[in-house]
Structures are given as structure tokens and as C-alpha cells.
Design goal:
alpha/beta; 41% helix; Rossmann fold; six-stranded parallel beta sheet; seven-stranded parallel beta sheet; globular
């Protein structure tokens, strides 16, 4: 790329099923956003679950027509390693046609090494906090509650996963951090600030949007939790704060998501309260958000929870911890509390229960600025990070001219 005004040619490597759920959905939306922002995108996914814009070139690594390598049969780690090998071989054939490589965790080691040898700058997605930190903080919380993470869970102890990801950290030119919380977990591990690039995630404004009519100020609050019901998400803090607040007297707390084994049993005394409804997995989350007053997420560790952006788009006020990675501002369009501070969380719920004018003020302010957190905005931001990274790499690798000593 000769000029910052020219189109960036990005190779996007994703070792999973692009367009499926969770991080697969995040990656799919990133590709869409990059195309909309004007990047030339070549995508190497493990498999393609749903289509991307036609201008994006797609070549799966672990799927051939309708035949796919079964991730469960070979294991996710082995599938990611195979994907990484295939992408690294393809990059060698594309030298000179790529400006930057965007890779994802567990499927990037060889890819990053080959890109470095070919002089191509690289960025590594950090959809979560520093992995060692994340696993350790979840382990401590589970021990405090007296439960264990299921074997094979992404936040269960896994030394091999930590080893691979920490090697990837070193190999990548920059780590893409979707929140200040994620950046801080790396800074605490003594990563240099210039190694970390701040980007963001978003929401689909065609799916998540607020009700057009003004809400009636009904007597009770409706508070909503959406996510995996596990200690990491801090649902136990939300339940405790809800029952400590007078909001539970005439309000409703809706819980959407599946529980890991042992967690619901540990929380059974609180979950049985008549103001609390456990709904399990739901397909009508956008409507639930539109009908709710508050989205609560007192998570102890996160990347940048997509539900926080989606709730903002739906007109649902955020009540989140500092670790949620939410794009919001305290007392301007949300309420934010330190991790594990049940006392302050209780105060926040009570405040919105008692002061409906404040609730409406936060809601209106959040809706007005929700366009800042769409996937379209995220694509523009990510493309900007690419350009900055390419420029940084160019300055770092361009040899400086030595002064010429005149002959004597």
C-alpha cells in the first residue's frame, strides 16, 4: 500500500465457522464492516456458515463444498492448528498482494511467523482479556462459590491453550483490544502500549432498535440479564443486588441463558424468588431488550460483551461492571460499578427504581449515541487501526539513511 488513501488489502484468517454463534458471529460482522468501510478483504475461514458481501474473496480451509472437517471429531485445537498450517502456505503464494494479516487466537502461530518473514504486518484479535488472567480470575471465583468449570470449557484450566496464545501474543505486531479492560490486562503483564491497538465491536441496527413510542412509566422495573450463566458473568452478584434493592418488590428480573452444571443449584435460594424468571435460551432477545428497562452485566472478566451494544441499540439502559468492556459513560448513558461491588450495584438498581426521570435521561442519551457502536462504526475503526499498524510497521522496517562522511 503506497498511500494511506488507497484501499487496504487485508487477509482475514479465522479458524472457526464464520457466521455461526458467539465469536464466529463477531468475526462475520467484522468482515461485513470492513467491506462496507472500503477494505479489499480476502477471508480464509475454517468454514463459512453464512454469506459475506460478494466483493470479499472467501476460501475456506476446513471445508470443501458441502464437506466439512468435523471440529468435534478432531478437536478444536487440532482443527485450528490445521487451519493455521493451510493459511501459512497460502500467504507465501500471496506475497505482494497483502497489506496486513488479521488473525484469530489458537490458529495463528505459523501464519504470524510466515507473515513476519515476508514483511507483512499482523494484528491478532483479542476477543477476551489476557488468557492467563481470564482463566485465573474465573478459577478464583469458582473456588469462592464452591463449584467447578466443566471440563473443556473455554475458561477451564488449560496450560496448552495458554502456551499457544502467549506465543501468538509475542509473534503478532499488534494485539486488537476491544475494550480498555482488555488493554489493561495486557498492560499489567508489562506489554508495551504501542503493541496494543484499541478497536471495538458493535450491534446490528436492523435487528436491535428501540420502540418508537415513548415508554409508559410502569410501577416496577424490568431488569434483564443475557449471557452464559456462569460465575464469570457475575449473575450471582446481580441476584444478590436485586434482592437487596426495593426494586424486587414490584419489579421483574429476567434471566436469559443456559447455566453451567452446579451454578443454578448454588444460586437456587435466590433464583426461587417470585420476582425472578429464568427463561433459558431464547431467540427473541431483541424484543426482550426493547421491553426491558435495564440490562445488567456485573461480569468479572470480559472482552467486550456484544449484548451491551445490542442493549444500547434496543433502548435498554446499561448497568454494568468495569470489566464488561461496554462502550458507555457513567451517569451519562449508563451506570458502571467496580467488579464485585454488590453494595454499589444495589444502590444503582435502587436509584433507577426510585428515579424514573434519571432512567429516561440515561435511556435517551444512550439511544442518541448508539450509532457510535454499530458494526458499521466498528468496521471504520478497525480499518483505521489497520492503516495505523501498516504505517507503524513501515517506519519500523524502513532502514534509516546513514550520514555521508565527506572524503578527507
Amino acid at each position: 500500500m503506497k498511500s494511506g488513501r488507497e484501499r487496504v488489502r487485508v487477509l482475514y484468517s479465522f479458524p472457526h465457522k464464520l457466521g455461526a454463534a458467539r465469536i464466529c458471529y463477531t468475526a462475520w460482522q467484522q468482515v461485513n464492516g470492513l467491506v462496507a468501510a472500503g477494505a479489499d478483504v480476502t477471508v480464509f475461514p475454517g468454514a463459512l456458515q453464512r454469506p459475506v458481501p460478494r466483493s470479499a474473496k472467501v476460501s475456506p480451509t476446513l471445508a470443501w463444498g458441502k464437506v466439512r472437517l468435523p471440529y468435534r471429531l478432531v478437536g478444536t485445537m487440532h482443527a485450528c492448528t490445521f487451519h493455521d498450517y493451510i493459511v501459512s502456505r497460502r500467504i507465501e503464494k500471496l506475497a505482494g498482494e497483502i497489506d496486513i494479516v488479521h488473525a484469530w487466537p489458537l490458529g495463528a502461530t505459523r501464519t504470524l511467523k510466515i507473515a513476519a518473514r515476508l514483511g507483512i504486518p499482523t494484528v491478532l484479535e483479542r476477543c477476551n482479556a489476557h488468557t492467563r488472567f481470564a482463566i485465573e480470575v474465573v478459577k478464583r471465583e469458582c473456588e469462592r462459590l464452591g463449584i467447578e468449570m466443566p471440563p473443556g470449557h473455554e475458561h477451564a484450566e488449560n496450560p496448552e491453550k495458554i502456551r499457544i496464545e502467549e506465543e501468538e501474543y509475542k509473534l503478532a505486531d499488534r494485539l486488537l483490544c476491544p475494550s480498555d479492560f482488555v488493554m489493561n490486562t495486557f498492560l499489567e503483564q508489562e506489554f508495551l502500549p504501542e503493541k496494543l491497538a484499541r478497536h471495538q465491536y458493535g450491534f446490528d441496527d436492523k435487528v436491535y432498535y428501540p420502540e418508537e413510542k415513548r415508554r409508559d412509566l410502569k410501577p416496577g422495573l424490568t431488569m434483564l440479564f443475557v449471557g452464559g450463566c456462569a460465575p464469570r458473568k457475575g449473575l450471582h452478584y446481580a441476584l444478590e443486588a436485586w434482592l437487596n434493592s426495593p426494586a424486587h418488590i414490584d419489579g421483574t428480573f429476567l434471566i436469559v441463558g443456559d447455566f453451567i452444571p452446579g451454578y443454578a443449584e448454588r444460586l437456587s435460594s435466590m433464583l426461587s424468588h417470585p420476582s425472578i424468571r429464568t427463561l433459558g435460551h431464547r431467540n427473541d432477545v431483541p424484543q426482550l431488550m426493547r421491553e426491558s428497562d435495564i440490562l445488567i452485566l456485573p461480569t468479572i472478566e470480559e472482552g467486550s460483551a456484544l449484548v451491551t451494544c445490542e442493549a444500547r441499540g434496543s433502548g435498554c439502559v446499561l448497568l454494568v461492571s468495569e470489566a464488561a468492556g461496554a462502550i458507555c459513560r457513567h451517569m451519562e448513558n449508563a451506570l458502571i460499578h467496580p467488579v464485585g461491588d454488590v453494595h454499589l450495584l444495589t444502590q444503582h438498581i435502587t436509584l433507577l427504581h426510585e428515579d424514573r426521570r434519571l432512567l429516561e435521561k440515561l435511556r435517551s442519551s444512550s439511544i442518541k449515541t448508539a450509532n457510535e457502536v454499530t458494526w458499521t462504526a466498528a468496521g471504520v475503526k478497525l480499518l483505521q487501526v489497520y492503516r495505523e499498524t501498516i504505517e507503524m510497521y513501515s517506519r519500523r522496517t524502513t532502514p534509516r539513511s546513514l550520514p555521508v562522511t565527506p572524503p578527507t
